[in-house]
Every structure is written in C-alpha cells, then in structure tokens.
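Deviations from the work plan: none for this task. Representative record:
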Amino acid sequence: MTPEGSLLAAEALCKAYGPTPALDGADFSIHPGEVVAVLGPSGSGKSTLLHCLAGIVRPDSGTVRYGPHALTDLSDAQRSALRRTDFGFVFQFGQLVPELTCLENVALPLRLNGTKRKEAERRAHDWLAQLEVEGVGKQRPGEISGGQGQRVAVARALATTPRVIFADEPTGALDSLNGERVLTLLTNAARDTNAAVVLVTHEARVAAYSDREIVVRDGRVKDMAGRI
Amino acid sequence: MSTTTSTSGGGLRGWARDLGMGVRFAVGGGREGWIRTLLTALGVGLGVTLLLAASTIPAIQAHRTERRLAATPTEADGPLAPSASTLVVADLRTQFRDRPLTGRMLRPDGPAAPAPPGVAALPKPGEMVLSPALREFLAEPGNALLRQRLPFRDAGTIGPAGLAGPAELKYYLGSATLSTDNGGVRVAGFGAERKSEPLDPQLLMLVIVGCVVLLMPVAIFIATAVRFGGERRDRRLAALRLIGADARMARRTAAGEALFGAVCGVLVGAALFLVGRQFVGGITIWDTNAFPSDLTPNPLLAALIVLVVPLAAVVVTLLALRRVAIEPLGVVRSGAGRRRRLWWRLPFPLGGLALLLANGGTSGAQSVVNPFLIAGGATLFLLGVTLLLPWIVDAVVGLFRGGPVPWQLAVRRLQLSGGAAARAVSGITVAVAGAIALQLLFSAIQGDFMKITGQDSKRAQLEVSLPTHDVATIRKMTREYQRTPGVRGVIAAIDTTASRPGPLRKGEPFIPSTSVTVGDCASLSELAHTGPCKDGDVFIVRDHTGQVDDSYIRQTARPGAAVDFAWPDRTGQPPRPRLWTIPKDARAIESRPDPMGMPSFGLFATPGALDTALLDEPQARAMIKIDPRFPDAVEHARNTAARIDPLTSVHALQNMERDAQYASVRTGLLVASTATLALIAASMLVTMVEQLRERRRLLSVLVAFGTRRATLAWSVLWQTAVPVALGLVLSVAGGAGLGLALLRMAGKSTVDWSVIWPLVAAGSGLVLVVTLLSLPPLWRMMRPDGLRTE
Amino acid sequence: MSIGHTLLGLLESGPRHGYDLKRAFDEHFGQDRPLHYGQVYSTMSRLLKNGLVEVDGVEAGAGPERKRYAITDAGITDVAQWLARPEKPEPYLQSTLYTKVVLALLTDRDAAELLDTQRAEHLRLMRGLTERKRTGDLADQLICDHALFHLEADLRWLELTAARLDKLAEAVGG
C-alpha cells in the first residue's frame, strides 16, 4: 500500500535480529502533518519499525520511500545526511549530551547541518522558548528536571524544522502532567510546520494525541484507519 | 540486628568485614564485576611485571659481569714460564655486519692446561668450540661469508657458564702456532678479579633520576588501573547505601574491591613475569640479553612490590573517594563545583628543585652524590608536575568557547570532567617530563663521554694492521686486499724511524730523529699535501700540530743530508749504520691528517727513491677504501684479514666514539622508556574504551539524528589530544626545569633544545595510536543496537 | 451484556439442551450471577421466534428442558456481527468485553482482532476528549481527564487480556 500523497511509506519490511524476526512484512505510510501512533505489545517490533522508517537500520528486505528517495537504496552517509536535514528524533531518556548546555544541545543538529554557531544558538533559544524552557539554556542536562529535559529534547528534534519527527516513547519517563504538556507542545509544533510525527508508545493517552494509530503485532502492521 | 553500632563502627573487625564485602562484590558482581576486576588485575599485573623486571636488573648485571670475568684469562704479575698447566691465549675480535663476535685463540703448553668456563675440553688446532647462538648464526643461509671466515671444525659447545648471555656470539679456536712472539699471552688459567670502578657521579645522578623517571609512570599506571570502572562501582556502592550501609562502610567496601583487584594483579604480574622470563633468552635489547635464570628479582624489592601494590590500591581508592559522596540515591561528585587550587600544588615541584639544588654540583672530582636528595628531589618534582596537570587542564579548558562541533563536544566533556582526563595523561606527562630532563642532561654532558675521533669515514672505511716486518710480505698482503671483492683502493704505508748519523752533540739529550713513511704517490697524498708526485720523489713533511718538536724534523730531514735507519737504542750496542742520503730536490710540503685522523710528518719517500731493504724493522699500516654499493664489501675485507692472520685487527672508521659506560646507561633508559610508553598507551586505551562503553546509548542517539562518524571520531581525537597537548606543554616546561636544574648541578650551561622534539613526537604519536585503536570500539558503539537496550 | 448473543455463541460448538446451555453459561460467565432457567427459556423462545435457533429434537418426558436447540446460519451471522461490533466505550464494560473474548475463543474466532477493534473504538473517543482538553478550560480538562483515565484503564485491561489470550484459551478449553 502506497497511498497517494504519502510523505513516508514502507512496504513489506522484514528485519531479523539473529533468528528472531522483529519485522515480518510490515507496511506503513504517513502523510504530511499527520500524527500516527504506533501501538503494540513490547517486543512486537515497534522500535524496529521506527528505526527502519528513519533509516537508522537498513531492513533485510522491503522498501522505505521518503518523497523521491528510496531510503533503503541510500548509502549510510546519505541516510545520515537525510536524518540530519529532514528528520527529528525524541527518545525516552539518555538522549541529551550531558556535557553540553541545554542551548548547545538544541543547537547541535543545526550545527551538524552546517549552521553557524551564533545563528544555531539563536534559533535554539527560540525553540527553547517555544517549549517553555527558555530559562535552562545555560544549564547542563544533569541540572534540570526530567520534564524540562524532555522539552529540551523536543526542542532539539524540532530545531531543524524536520519533515518527519520520530518519537519513541517520548513521555515514558515523565509524570502525566509533564507528559501531556510535552505531547501537546510536540504535536502543536508539528501541525504548525506541517511535519509528520511517528509516535511509538504503549500508552493509550499518548496515542490519543495521534490522528490515527497502527498496531504492530508479531512483526506485522495492522492499520486501524480502515476499521472506523 | 543486635549491634547497630557495628555498622558504623571502626576497628579491625569493621575493616575486615567491609573489605570482605568488597571482595565479594569483586567476585560476585556478575559479568560487569568480573570485567572490572579483570581489567584492574591486568593493568596492575602489567605494572607489577614491569616492576619485577626492574627488580631483576641488578641480578642480570651482576650475573653477566660475573660470567664475563670468569671467562677472562687471569693476568699474571710477571712473565710466566711455560709449564704443563699454562696456555697461550690471544683475543680474536671481529664483527659480522652489526653483530660483534668474541673469539679467543688458545694453545696449551701442556696436557694440564685449564679450559675456559663452559668448555669441556680445549679445542685441537684447527678446531673451535662455539656458543649455540654462533652455531645458529653460522648456519643462517645469508651468512656464507662468515662461514668462510671461520672454516674451522665444530668441536663442541660453550655452555651457559661461559657466556654472558644466550645470544652471545663466542668461540674458542685451537692453535698449534700461537706464541708470545706472534701476539699471544701466556696465562695460567681463567677468571679475572673484578676491578670495580666507582660510577662517575654524573652517571650515578643519571641512573638515580632515570629510575625515578621510569618507575613513576608505572606507579601512576597502577594507581589508574585500580580505578578502572570507578563510576559503575560508585553506582553499585550507592545501592549498598540504600540498603543501609554508611559512607565509611561504602568506602571500605570500595577499597576491598580494589584490594582484590590489586592482589589478583600481583598474581597476574608474577605469572606474566614467570612466563615472560622463559622467552627472555630470545630477546636482545641493545646488545644486552640474559638467561632466564638471570632474571631473579631482588628478594627485598620483590617483597616490597608484593606488599606495597595492594596497600597502594587501598590508599588510592580511599583518596579517590575523598571528593565523592556516595549517597543512597546516587553519587555526588563534590569536585564538580569546586575549583582546583594551586597553592598546595605549587610547593611540590619547587620543593623538589630545592632538594636537587641542595645536593650541590656533581661536576667536580670530589663531588658527592646523595642518592636520597637526588631521588627525593626528582620524585617530588615529577609528583608536583602530575599534581599541577589537573589544575592546568581545568584552567585552560575553562577558557575554551565555541569552535566546530567535534571540538565543542570534546571541550565541554573536558570542562565537566577534566580531572579524569588529566589523570589518564598524567603518566605520559611524568614520563615525558622526566625523559626530557634526562635527555637535556645527556646531550649536555655527552661531550664528556663522546670523543670526536677525527676519523674520516669518507676517505677510508677500514683500518687493518699488517702483522709483519717484512716488506715483501707487506706488499703481498696489500695486493691481497686490493684483490678482495668490493675494495676500491688500499692506502698502504711502511713506517720506520730515521735519525741523524753520528754521535750526540753538545747539549743534546738524545740524537734527533724523525719518522719515515714509504708509500706510493696515491697513498702519500692521503697523508700529506704532496702536490704533483711521481715515483722517485722524496718529501719533507713539517708538523704544524705541535705534537712533535718541529726542530727535530728540521735537524734530521734536510735535503742533501744523510740519515741512519738503524734503530739507535735497540740492544744497547751501537748498531750497524743503515745510511741513506736525502735527495737535494726533496720538497718541503704540508702534512694532512690521514683518514684515521692522525697527522704524519718527517720524511716521505716513494718506493722508487728509497730501497726498502735499508729499513730496519719496518711496520705497515693500511687503510682500505671500499665500494659502498658492493654488498658486504666490509665482510669480504675482514675475511681477507682473517685469511692473512686470524690475529689481524680490523677497525671500522667512525666519526664519533661513544664511551661504553655512558652508552649502557643510555641504553637502559631507552629500553625502559619504551616499555613505559607502551604501558601508558594501554592505560589510555582502556580508559577511552570504557568511557565509550558508558556512553553507548548516547552515541546511538547521536547517530540517529545523523551525526557523521567523522564528527565523533574527531571529538574522540580532540578529547585525547587536548589533555595530552596540555600534558606535553607542561612536561616540556617541567622537563626543561628539571633538566636545567640537573645541568646546573653538572656544571653545564649549553642546552640542546632539539632533544625535546622526538619526545614530543613520541607523545603525539601515542595519542594518535590510542585514538586509532579506539575507533573500532567507537564504530561498534555507534550501531543502533544501543537504542534497543532499555 | 447480551445473554441472547452469549447463548447463541455457546450453541455454535454444537446443539445443546436448555439445561446444558445454562450449565455452560454459568461455568464460563456466571461466576457471581448464575442464570435462571426462566431466563434461558424466555431467551431461547425469542431466538426461536427470530429464526436464529431451531429445535433440533425433543427427548421423551415433559418440560421445556427436554428440548435440544441448534443454531441456524442466521444465528451464526448474528454472533459474528455482535463480536465484530465494538462496544460503545463506557464504564464497567468489562463483563461484556470478557464475554466476547471468551466466546471468540470458544468459537475459534480471532480474539486479538476483537481487541484491536475495541481499542480503535476507545481511541476514537479518547481523541475526541483529548481534542476537547486542548481547546477547553480547566474544568473541561479535568472532566475529560477523568473519562480518559477510565478509558485508559479499560484499554490497559484489554492489553493485558490480549497479552494473555493464549493462557485464556487454554483455561477456556476450546
């Protein structure tokens, strides 16, 4: 299935780690501005799907298309370049570089893209403000709360105004109030910039922020859109 | 619990219990715990191996010297009469390519003549007994030329008792003709008295400082190894606090873990040493090698190592935890917020310098070297340099702002944990600072130990003695050299003395005489500026070097005057005159140093001008020019010499000659610094890989958002290079300071700064190697697998 | 909870007497509330009237309990539709959902499918509530949160059930 107008689409993805298949013929597609929740029991292959879609991991078989590119045919360097420019990432924890200040952390993807330091940090500051954490710019990740840290991480994912944001359990380590706020900010920002969000989660309340959900079970994807 | 006080209680029982708990953690800490213990044991083990090896040096030296002396013919006080138990010996020194061979020719006077140590029976004429190493060496396919030189029948093996080391190339050759008349010495047996020369005070200073310089990095390495994986351990200790241990218990438990690792390390070190020493016979470092049995650690030093290393492990761990508060919910490093202070660090190097200078000069003849002052001063100084390093890393790294991403990543990391980085390179700093100091001292005092020989190896490459007084034989030998493959020319000259005929004149203490040199024009032109020369010419060569009284030459060698070749005072009887008149057209010319650097003067004659039959006991010298492109030309010439007479000495011309004692000290330092640098590289690598392992997840995240490998590789390089660069700057400064202090003691003022560059280059090379070796683990950590572990 | 659909589902595995039906129902679903005979007979007569079951045979003796019922094709279709139709998310839904899961297992239908369908339905409602929260005032948010947490609890229970379907299938015994 490669629906019309999709931004990122995958077909018949297979990926095995050792003898156990993590993905076994998974399909997926997402449109610009769409928030898709990826649900499924743990070990079902949610994260592997995300890694394949983002070009972090090359699937054993199947294709991932992103616009005109067949991600699966690109070299490692090309995929890295694409991730720098077009994709943003938020993970559950341990993603901020502990020795950089929060401002520098947010500016990091911009700088990896070649933006000058001053400009990168100016834009990073704006994003911190948008995520309501402009005060922590000079502090290091170890000195701020988990909720603040996750907002910094979201700011970092948004800093390069990516076309697709991949979020793997972005609120997994947060309390409900913080988690909801982070999700609101993330999805709002994504809708404002017409970016697509792939939101891997096991929580229904998180999935409720999506426009549509898919379920991964035993390495296969079930798209629930057609059921309603 | 019945005794709540005992949890925090001190005393031996508390210590024993907490240390025991640490040991249990080290053993039963799962895979993590084992790896940590293993790394510590390996690191400490390497250090202990090195220390044990160092403790064997006195024994090695002693044993080698003992055996060498035992094989030296006993010098008699006066001439010995031949008897059934005497023998005539002569040294045969030769060399094959760069390997020196020691040989000795033997001829027993009777059946009771003793054999040298390690030799069962004296070789018969034309036979030789040889060392196993020489037998192997002779059998090597490329060494046919040496087989031609030693064509003697193999009659047995020299046992270990007769060899300085297993790699010594040694042989005893039996002779039927050797006598005291043709170069031999009659002796009653073997075994020489040790003539102990006290070590030159300057050399003694070098040796002491050298030991300090080389063993301090090992000590620092051991201290580092004990702290391998410290962060993970701290987390485990925090868990221990959570279940009710107090801070002191946690600290002791940590000490227990370190103690266990260190004890394992001592065992590993002892095992490595025992295994390694079996292979030591095959290793020759700078011409020195030893039998495994020579490698006996000094018992006192060995006991010290076994006791001090585990104790040091405990002390280092307790000191390291001083700035760390292990709280039940995690580890707080109080060091993060606090600035390092300079005031207590500075007195160490300054105090060290003061101690050194307090010893006074070592250049005078009566100078005294106080080993404690010098060793203490050098130790204190180098310790001070190590203590300064963290402060300097903090201070300098704190100044850095911005820069490209890899640089920023590296600098920020260093700003957060500069102490760890400084610790990793402190070993290198001490080693390089010490080595620079030593090298400075070396280069300054090497003038005292290096003699400029004045030999010019461009004009001729070999000098040979021609063991005959017969002119015809001399000519024959010269022709043999000329026919030798690879020989381009032979500078040969016959020397003798001429004196003024007639009795002593009034006021003369003896009859004036001068030297006479007979040779062809080509040879003479190497000894004097002859200008145009043809056979039949005679020259009078004046001496301007001041070595001889020029007036004797003027009085003896006058054109038209007669000279007497007969040696005046040979038998006491007035000899039969051998008169010859110097031609009137004899030209006065300037002398020129020969390729050996010796000036010639007096009467120079070509063979056409002087009948050599007139000469009384002429001696001959020959210098050989060889074709540098002809392979093994030198060996061919040596073979010719051996064919003419095994006692012929062949001497390769060199521009410089090193004092042997100085050379051996330098050699020892080189050996040890190589080993030390390798250890430091290993330590840095382990630290770096562990650091990478701890950031596995972060690295995966960075890769996820598209960080280039090169970016991270550069950041690893900078992270290593910045502290090392700072360490090197400090070590150059510190080394120069220490070096200058030592120079001042040695009474030298000239400084050769070029010695610094090779050491700086070695340090930088080491960084590069460490970075390159940490790249494969980095690539591995950068795989997305890190994202999956949760 | 629909007793009619449940009894229909139980009949899918083969014709049963009214008495058997009550026993089977009690065994699987009647833990706290055993079915009365009267309920069985009234339900069966309604199903007969609608043509979803038929009388398969009557044994000798008096009383309705001697009648043997069998499910008709229309009855099977009715059960399938009921199982596939998500329940309107509301509090205390568990007993219905549980019945559905067990019946799906008993009739060899895909219980995971049933759970996915139900979750989608829950999520649809939760999306609406989330959207209201996004735009509403604090009171709205609090009210929505209350509903959301309840729905989430339902879903969690569903996930848990899904994760233990295999065990449940074993316990139900097919």
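Residues 22 and 253 of chain B are 4 Å apart (CA to CA).
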